[in-house]
């Protein structure tokens, strides 16, 4: 047992230890005193938040959860409750956590959480405020688990991430870089370097850095990742990361800082990068950010204001001794306010996360804490000394807790000493928790002895699960029979003689086999142990992980005095989950990604979120999607111990992806089996990455309907060709004398998103509205806009209607199309600049899938294109495509330039691959293409039929659209032609396994078919 004189322990604190000490089962002492840490949440979130409140209370931040039933749910009601607590509670709140999304409690004026910390009536905060933007109890549990894991920081070999940081700078105007972005980032990196950081990484868009480097940094582990640049909703390209399956940082959770325009929303039903990054992960598989600091407002020129907050935040953390996140952000706000006295830029900053979060600015240090190991009841002073690395720690917070009767806090002085006044009223165990700046939390305990008589109680036990009953890992596992050597403690000062204890349980998952043990004499203020074998207990094979088995001890001494004690067994079972995926594509393009048409090996990592080991783990990979062929579905993982991860690196899966739209998510399932354990884990494989040579899908929705293909999308059959149709002095001329639209009757029906139109409205400002409309707004926006009209935005901008050569239109019946040309349209803002561009709408002879019409934009000049919108919007104003808006291009968009063509169609990329089998492709009457067999080997036969004599070319392309083999290019008579392909490229080298495209052309007709090549 611990010495009653001095106890020197060095364990880090975990929630399980709190539970074993009884802190999770009891309210803190004297809750009527108020709370330093106030949590406001829906009633259904309370169970998820209790571990956080218990931890805050145990460390000395007396916490209280109040529900919206008590506070109300309007900003005014919630602020009124907080103000009353601040003014009337003996212990008033220093921190407030709004533990719900804006759907439950919105921000004040929809964008302001500072309001909840404003106690004096001006705009400045007296209380630090944070928010868990949880939509449901599960998301709330996730954020609680992330916060506890971050703060409690168990000892780990992976500590380098605490002293690594990354800054990102995205210049939107390379010719005139912002004066703050780079200098701010250098300033922060200088603070990191002075603090001894191992890595202070700078990512800069003008240096060619992109999302790839940012994702790699996140997954390697960073304490902070910051962004300075233009943004809105998300960080802008090339750092537009989205929380998805590419995020594999697990417990290495950074604090993200977006010192830019709005990436945090406090408006109900909205979601942005800030809330998505802190919601990411699960209670069992952590990940994403532990906190996000960003703004909730947009401004045209605000760089200097955000610079002041950004610099003030990091100065507080690294040079001013502030270790908690909320107060550090407040220093940043006040730094800005002292320079500019600006309430709007003060209030726009929002903290998503725990406002009392103890921020790591170095590798966490272990604490050496000295204190008495045993005391008697009654009023007294309890001394505690905190040291780290042999040096005293000043400012450490020490908290003593014992059920509901003792609660005392104090901070250490310059010598690391604290004196706490306590008055325990009965025997028991008192817990000691010490926390401090960059100090790993310490947990210890002190025995409160009784005076007079005998008081027997459970002290501790050990687990002996050696074979054959168990696996020898000293954990109580499912299906095991374990022995429990156990200590009894006599709190009294008289000896208990001839002590016999009987163990029992009512839990259906446990059975006590050896229930009686003798302890002999247990001296006063001392302990005694059972014989070495101890009690014997069997656990059911179906017992779940973390299930707690309650056990009771009836202790009888020589005087026939019976005293009851109890304790718990936490069951350790495996809980296997999909963690992340590594693609080994050395036989393909070796870019570490599964791309369309590629065959690759997959290394899957499983995380054991349970406490027990998964032994002899085997996995079968399945996918219900025919676009992914699983060629080797079996993987062996061996043993994966609790809290660890394991992979199939030595027994990899093999898959082949069909041609499909890049960034298609393919659903997959892992059927997992281990000893006494089975489960299934769903996950998705994202195939490919969208780039300049891919189409743009409309959205936001899945699946998409319309796609925009431009003339550089070489791997796609829908790729358009630029063929300019000049209408000046040929078509019908429209002269605009002011901003306006003219309604034109169409010679055919235009089917747009399932609605049919026989008219279109042409506006001088570079767009067409399906149907009759007077809409002529010159101020363009990104699409979809959520308002306005259905629109074909060819080059939507403000044009001077009296200048240039006006607008021309023509029905080209021979080519089945209606054409509109804006000829030499002069920009309002740049009177010496003009553009010429056109739109082409095809009639029903060129209908795409679902009977929707096809249309195309073409561009003849490139004189400005810095402030326009190119794209489309559906009749509901909620779905659209923006190829470019104000010179910000979609990742898949080619830059507007002379000779550019963009085709909009509902023909999806490689839509035929949704079929279960690869079937022959059929074109107009008499045309067909097939590869036999398919999958193909070294003796494939390409069979092509055409009804008329024509020059025929047959070519093989890889997944990137690169021509790898020409099988034929010659004149062929009508009928069926056959061409052999041996799986080699045009240099005679064997092509890697994967999916290829066979394309045959005869005259103006082209057919394509995917081919699976297997050797």
Please summarize what this structure is.
The chain has 1015 residues and is mainly beta.
3D structure, described in words:
A hairpin with a 1-residue loop joins strand 10 and strand 11 (234-235). This protein has an 8-stranded antiparallel beta sheet, with no helix packed on it. Helix 2 packs parallel to helix 5 and helix 9 (303-319) packs across helix 10 (325-340). It has 11 helices and 65 strands. The protein has 7 domains: 15-131, Gingipain r, domain 1 (Rossmann fold); 157-352, Rossmann fold, CATH 3.40.50; 365-448, Immunoglobulin-like; 456-570, Sandwich (Immunoglobulin-like); 576-682, Immunoglobulins (Immunoglobulin-like, Sandwich); 696-905, no CATH class; 917-1013, Immunoglobulin-like (Sandwich). The protein is globular and about 115 Å long. It is mainly beta. Helices cover 12% and strands 39% of the residues. Mean pLDDT is 89; it is low at 1-31 and 911-924.
Q: Any chance you could write out the topology, listing elements then pairs?
A:
Elements: E1 7-9, E2 11-12, H1 15-20, E3 37-41, H2 46-59, E4 63-67, H3 68-71, H4 75-88, E5 95-98, E6 128-131, H5 137-152, E7 164-170, H6 181-194, E8 199-204, H7 211-220, E9 224-229, E10 231-232, E11 234-235, E12 255-259, H8 273-279, E13 291-295, H9 303-319, H10 325-340, H11 343-347, E14 349-352, E15 368-371, E16 374-375, E17 380-388, E18 391-392, E19 397-402, E20 406-411, E21 417-422, E22 428-436, E23 439-448, E24 456-461, E25 481-484, E26 486-490, E27 496-504, E28 510-514, E29 516-522, E30 526-529, E31 535-539, E32 548-556, E33 562-570, E34 576-584, E35 599-608, E36 614-622, E37 628-632, E38 634-640, E39 645-647, E40 653-657, E41 664-674, E42 677-687, E43 696-697, E44 707-710, E45 732-734, E46 741-752, E47 755-763, E48 767-770, E49 791-796, E50 807-812, E51 817-826, E52 834-842, E53 855-859, E54 869-873, E55 880-885, E56 888-889, E57 900-905, E58 921-922, E59 928-932, E60 940-946, E61 950-957, E62 963-972, E63 975-981, E64 994-1002, E65 1005-1013
Parallel strand pairs: 3-4, 3-5, 5-6, 7-8, 7-9, 9-12, 12-13, 16-23
Antiparallel strand pairs: 1-15, 2-23, 10-11, 13-14, 15-17, 17-18, 17-21, 19-20, 19-22, 22-23, 24-26, 25-31, 26-30, 27-29, 27-32, 28-31, 32-33, 34-35, 35-39, 35-40, 36-38, 36-41, 37-40, 41-42, 43-44, 44-57, 45-50, 46-47, 47-48, 48-49, 49-54, 50-51, 51-52, 52-53, 53-57, 54-55, 55-56, 58-59, 59-60, 60-63, ...
């Amino acid at each position: 047992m611990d010495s009653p004189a001095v106890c020197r322990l060095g364990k880090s604190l975990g929630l399980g230890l709190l539970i074993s000490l009884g802190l999770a089962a009891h309210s803190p002492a004297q809750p009527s005193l108020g709370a330093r840490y106030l949590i406001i949440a829906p009633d259904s979130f309370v169970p998820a938040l209790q571990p956080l409140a218990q931890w805050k209370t145990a460390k000395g931040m007396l916490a209280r959860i109040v529900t919206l039933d008590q506070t109300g749910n309007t900003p005014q009601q919630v602020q009124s409750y907080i103000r009353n607590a601040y003014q009337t509670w003996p212990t008033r709140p220093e921190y407030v956590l709004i533990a719900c999304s804006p759907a439950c409690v919105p921000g004040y004026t929809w964008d302001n959480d500072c309001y909840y910390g404003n106690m004096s009536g001006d705009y400045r905060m007296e209380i630090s405020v944070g928010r868990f933007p949880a939509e449901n109890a599960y998301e709330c549990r996730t954020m609680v688990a992330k916060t506890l894991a971050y703060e409690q920081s168990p000892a780990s070999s992976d500590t380098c991430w605490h002293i690594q940081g990354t800054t990102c700078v995205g210049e939107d105007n390379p010719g005139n870089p912002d004066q703050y972005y780079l200098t701010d980032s250098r300033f922060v990196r200088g603070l990191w370097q002075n603090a001894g950081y191992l890595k202070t990484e700078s990512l800069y868009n003008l240096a060619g850095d992109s999302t790839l480097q940012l994702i790699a940094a996140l997954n390697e582990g960073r304490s902070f990742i910051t962004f300075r640049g233009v943004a809105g909703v998300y960080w802008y390209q090339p750092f537009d990361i989205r929380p998805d399956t590419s995020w594999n940082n697990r417990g290495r959770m950074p604090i993200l800082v977006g010192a830019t325009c709005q990436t945090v929303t406090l408006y109900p039903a909205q979601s942005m990068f800030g809330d998505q990054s802190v919601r990411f992960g699960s209670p069992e598989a952590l990940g994403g950010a532990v906190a996000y600091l960003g703004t909730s407002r947009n401004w045209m020129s605000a760089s200097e204001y955000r610079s002041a907050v950004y610099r003030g935040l990091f100065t507080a953390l690294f040079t001013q001794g502030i270790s908690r996140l909320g107060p550090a952000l407040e220093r940043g706000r006040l730094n800005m306010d002292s320079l500019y006295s600006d309430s709007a830029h003060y209030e726009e900053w929002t903290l998503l996360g725990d406002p009392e979060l103890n921020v790591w600015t170095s590798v966490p240090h272990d604490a050496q804490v000295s204190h008495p190991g045993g005391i008697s009841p009654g009023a007294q002073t309890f001394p505690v000394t905190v040291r780290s690395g042999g040096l005293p720690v000043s400012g450490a917070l020490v908290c003593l807790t014992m059920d509901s009767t003792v609660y005392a806090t104090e901070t250490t002085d310059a010598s690391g000493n604290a004196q706490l006044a306590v008055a325990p009223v009965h025997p028991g165990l008192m817990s000691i928790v010490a926390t401090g700046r960059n100090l790993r939390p310490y947990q210890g305990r002190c025995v409160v002895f009784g005076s007079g008589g005998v008081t027997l109680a459970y002290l501790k036990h050990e687990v002996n699960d050696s074979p054959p009953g168990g696996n020898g890992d000293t954990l109580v596992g499912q299906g095991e029979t374990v022995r429990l050597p156990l200590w009894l403690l006599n709190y009294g000062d008289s000896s208990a003689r001839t002590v016999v204890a009987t163990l029992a349980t009512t839990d259906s998952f446990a059975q006590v086999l050896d229930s009686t043990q003798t302890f002999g004499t247990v001296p006063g203020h001392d302990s005694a142990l059972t014989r070495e074998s101890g009690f014997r207990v069997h656990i059911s094979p179906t017992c779940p992980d973390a299930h707690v088995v309650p056990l009771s001890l009836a202790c009888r001494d020589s005087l026939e005095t019976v005293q009851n004690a109890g304790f718990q067994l936490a069951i350790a079972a495996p809980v296997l989950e999909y963690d992340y995926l590594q693609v080994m594509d050395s036989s393909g393009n070796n870019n570490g990604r599964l791309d369309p048409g590629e065959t690759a090996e997959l290394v899957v990592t499983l995380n054991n979120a349970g406490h027990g080991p998964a032994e002899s783990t085997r996995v079968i990979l399945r996918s219900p999607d025919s676009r992914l062929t699983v060629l080797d579905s079996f993987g062996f993982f061996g043993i994966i111990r609790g809290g660890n991860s394991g992979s199939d690196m030595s027994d990899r899966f093999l898959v082949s992806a069909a041609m499909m739209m890049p960034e298609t998510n393919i659903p997959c399932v892992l059927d997992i089996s281990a000893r006494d354990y089975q489960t299934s884990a769903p996950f998705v494989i994202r195939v490919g990455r969208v780039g300049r040579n891919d189409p743009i899908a409309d959205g936001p929705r899945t699946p998409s309907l319309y796609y925009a293909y431009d003339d550089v999308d070489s791997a796609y059959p829908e790729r358009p060709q630029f063929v300019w149709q000049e209408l000046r002095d040929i078509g019908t001329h429209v002269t605009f004398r002011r901003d306006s639209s003219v309604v034109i009757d169409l010679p055919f029906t235009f089917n747009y998103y399932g609605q049919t139109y026989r008219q279109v409205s042409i506006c001088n400002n570079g767009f067409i509205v399906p149907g009759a409309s007077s809409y002529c707004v010159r101020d363009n926006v990104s699409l979809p806009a959520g308002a306005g009209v259905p629109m074909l935005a060819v080059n939507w901008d403000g044009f001077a209607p009296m200048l240039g050569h006006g607008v021309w239109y023509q029905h080209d019946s021979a080519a089945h199309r209606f054409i509109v040309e804006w000829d030499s349209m002069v920009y309002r803002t740049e009177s010496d600049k003009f553009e010429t561009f056109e739109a082409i709408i095809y009639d029903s002879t060129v209908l795409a899938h679902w009977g929707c019409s096809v249309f195309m934009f073409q561009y003849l000049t490139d004189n400005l294109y810095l402030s326009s919108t190119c794209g489309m919007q559906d009749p509901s104003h909620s779905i659209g495509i923006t190829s470019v808006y104000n010179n910000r291009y979609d990742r898949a968009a080619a830059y507007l330039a002379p000779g550019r063509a963009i085709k909009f169609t509902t023909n999806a990329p490689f839509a035929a691959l949704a079929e279960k089998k690869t079937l022959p492709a059929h074109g107009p009457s008499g045309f067909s293409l097939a590869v036999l067999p398919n999958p193909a080997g070294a003796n494939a036969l390409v069979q092509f039929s055409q009804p008329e004599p024509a020059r025929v070319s047959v070519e093989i392309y890889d997944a990137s659209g690169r021509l790898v083999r020409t099988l034929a290019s010659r004149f062929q008579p009508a009928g069926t032609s056959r061409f052999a392909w041996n799986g080699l490229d045009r240099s005679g080298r064997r092509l890697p396994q994967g999916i290829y495209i066979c394309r045959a052309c005869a005259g103006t007709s082209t057919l394509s078919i995917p081919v699976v090549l297997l050797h």
